[in-house]
Write a structure and sequence with these properties.
Largest sheet of chain A: 5 strands, mixed
Largest sheet of chain B: 6 strands, mixed
Largest interface: A-B, 29 and 21 residues
Helix content of chain A: under 10%
Oligomer: heterodimer
Number of strands of chain B: 11
Order of helices and strands of chain B: HHHHHHHHHHHEEHEEEHEHHEEEHHHEE
Strand content of chain A: over 45%
Radius of gyration of chain A: 15 Å
Order of helices and strands of chain A: EEEEEEEEEEEEEEEEEEEEEH
Helix content of chain B: 55-70%
Distance between the termini of chain B: 50 Å
Number of strands of chain A: 21
Number of helices of chain B: 18
Shape of chain B: elongated
Strand content of chain B: 5-15%
Chain lengths: ~220, ~400
């Protein structure tokens, strides 16, 4: 496994009235983050908060192109980002031990924190389609350009790692400075990751290393 | 963190332990055990809370040293609140070192504050102050900042320093309001009342007068010869003679000081020192021996002269003699003073705090219980003692600490 140090591009926040960031997603225009009682969206260019929905949000957040998905307690809820209405609810695969959430190719990917696993889940039924093992506690999960990335956060040490979705092998580890936890992870589809700041009320933009970096 | 842990932690921070238990009550992983422990502590089941936090620390193990250290700190805090002072400081210091090294300033500072608070309770003022000095106060949560200023106020009060005590209490009150926790605000108010209540009684031949802490401080700074019955010492300025282990000599000295500038009749001295109702020859002989011993002990501070009917105190290098006594004098006043904080104490914690043997404390507790002044609940090691709150009963000068030697 190759390791490189994370390049932090920008910090958003601290957001007032927020204790910590539990999940992060990106809808192409706005960055959404989960903070317990609310889902908030901000503009990644201006940093300005655009929208706040009153939704229970204890862990990961995802976006399927139209709707948001949000983990709270032991369920995953499908939410209309314009109205905040809950459209559908499925059980979370880790039965509440769930952390990160990502959308890719018609399925949900759910990190199970202390079990160090990522589950692929049917978004209609909640059925587990398959599971990948990691060797660290999984926080956020995201897919970009066919690459599966997940955050880890274990005892004050955190990294963002790219793994082989078939074998779970770690291909690259982007290490965060000690104490900077990653809770929630989402790619902007380009060169940036948005990372939840853990127990701090911030979201960090971290540079996504190009595949060439990883293979150098 | 996973979904239920985050939800449970949020419930706990909002003071809703039942909502937290609903989420993690059946889980056995390390973070769940820790949150269950904190929930049980909020619900008042201290024993269960400590057992859970200990299991959590074990479950985190060496793979997650920072999380384990946080459990150790939480357990120490619960022990402190339940007045169990017997725990090892080493474990807390070790946890603090781990937290400091990992950059967890908030919990590291909290651990340091807890250590200082325990040291204050057991009367180790110097060591408590050293810990406060090294404390990163800016990192503390408002709730622990209030506690931290209470420790600083407690140290200043035990050392009879009014100004810093007042300043620390003001800061404690501000931090408690900022934290918005009613119990904490009440604790600060209780300490302010203790600070403003009479700290000692000035006893002289004709009258008695209650003194506030400021008046005690002024008296200690004067050149008077002070016979201090809170601590069984005689002092003038920085010179002091301790008679803590010589109760007969101290009783004689106190009787002589209370009679000053006159003399104390033999009958009075015999009654005060030996409880003798009448004076026979053997009593007189024994009095002569004890007076000779006392003369030797307090030589630098005062002389003793024989008078027609007894003895008189002749202070050296001062024109004033003052007797300082506890505001309320009763048997086992020190034990009552500690219990007056309204908390439940174990007898071993009382023994630690008073610096006496557990047997001595047990005898005092049995006597007080017989007189209906204290109550106990629980059995064996879990037995705890409480006293009905006595309003305004001061604890300041009664705590066994090296107050007057500084």
């Amino acid at each position: 496994m190759k390791k490189i140090a994370a390049e932090i591009l920008r910090e958003y926040g601290p957001f007032p009235g927020v204790d910590g960031v539990n999940g992060v997603s990106f809808d192409g225009r706005r960055v959404w983050f989960a903070s317990g009682d609310t889902l908030s969206a901000f503009d990644p260019d201006s940093g300005e908060t655009l929208r706040t929905l009153d939704v229970a949000s204890d862990a990961g957040t995802a976006f399927d192109g139209t709707y948001l998905y949000q983990i709270a307690d032991a369920v995953i809820r499908k939410i209309d980002p314009e109205t905040g209405d809950i459209l559908h609810t499925i059980p979370a695969p880790g039965n509440g031990g769930d952390s990160g959430l990502a959308w890719a190719e018609g399925t949900l990917w759910v990190g199970e924190h202390r079990s160090c696993r990522i589950h692929q889940v049917d978004p209609d039924t909640g059925e587990i389609l398959r599971s990948i093992e990691s060797d660290r506690f999984v926080t956020g999960v995201t897919w970009v350009d066919g690459e599966l990335w997940h955050g880890t956060w274990q005892d004050n040490e955190s990294d963002i790692r790219r793994i082989d979705p078939r074998t779970g092998e770690v291909l690259l580890s982007v290490e965060m400075p000690s104490g900077d936890g990653v809770s929630g992870l989402e790619s902007d589809g380009g060169d940036r990751f948005f990372c939840g700041g853990g127990d701090r009320a911030i979201v960090r933009a971290v540079s996504r290393p190009r595949t060439a970096d990883a293979e150098r | 963190m996973d979904s239920l842990i985050v939800a449970a932690a949020r419930a706990l921070s909002l003071g809703d332990p039942l909502a937290a238990l609903k989420r993690v009550g059946l889980r056995e992983d390390a973070p769940s055990l820790a949150l269950r422990g904190i929930a049980m502590a909020q619900l008042g089941d201290v024993a269960r809370a400590r057992a859970l936090l200990r299991s959590a620390a074990r479950a985190f193990g060496s793979r997650e040293p920072v999380a384990r250290a946080r459990c150790v700190v939480a357990e120490a805090e619960i022990a402190l609140v339940s007045r169990d002072l017997g725990w090892a400081m080493d474990a807390l210091d070790g946890a603090r070192a781990v937290l400091e090294a990992s950059g967890d300033r908030v919990n590291a500072a909290h651990a340091r504050y807890l250590g200082a608070r325990r040291l204050l309770l057991i009367g180790q003022l110097d060591e408590a102050e050293r810990r406060l000095d090294g404390l990163d106060a800016g990192a503390l949560r408002p709730s622990s900042r209030a506690g931290c200023w209470l420790v600083a106020a407690g140290i200043a009060m035990r050392r009879v320093r009014t100004k810093p005590a007042r300043a620390a209490l003001d800061r404690a009150a501000r931090a408690a309001r900022e934290a918005g926790i009613p119990a904490l605000i009440a604790e600060v108010e209780r300490t302010v009342r203790a600070f403003e209540a009479p700290a000692a009684r000035l006893v002289s031949r004709d009258r008695e007068r209650l003194l506030g802490l400021g008046a005690v401080e002024a008296l200690l700074a004067s050149d008077a010869l002070i016979v201090d019955a809170c601590r069984n010492v005689a002092r003038r300025g920085s010179d002091r003679v301790s008679l803590a282990s010589r109760p007969v000599l101290f009783a004689l000295l106190r009787a002589l000081a209370e009679a000053w500038p006159g003399d104390a009749p033999r009958e009075t001295l015999l009654r005060r020192a030996f409880g003798a109702r009448h004076a026979d020859d053997s009593h007189r002989a024994r009095l002569r021996v004890e007076i000779a011993r006392l003369r030797e002990e307090i030589g630098p501070l005062a002389g003793l002269t024989a008078t027609k009917r007894g003895f008189a105190l002749q202070p050296v290098a001062t024109e004033t003699v003052a007797v300082l006594a506890p505001p309320v004098e009763s048997d086992h006043a020190q034990v009552l003073a500690l219990l007056a904080d309204g908390e439940a104490w174990s007898s071993s914690a009382l023994a630690l705090a008073l610096g006496v043997s557990p047997r001595t404390v047990q005898r005092a507790l049995d006597a007080l219980a017989g007189a209906g002044k204290v109550e106990s609940f629980g059995r064996g090691r879990a037995r705890r003692w409480t006293a009905p709150q006595i309003p305004g009963f001061p604890t300041s000068l009664l705590l066994p600490a090296s107050t007057f030697n500084r």
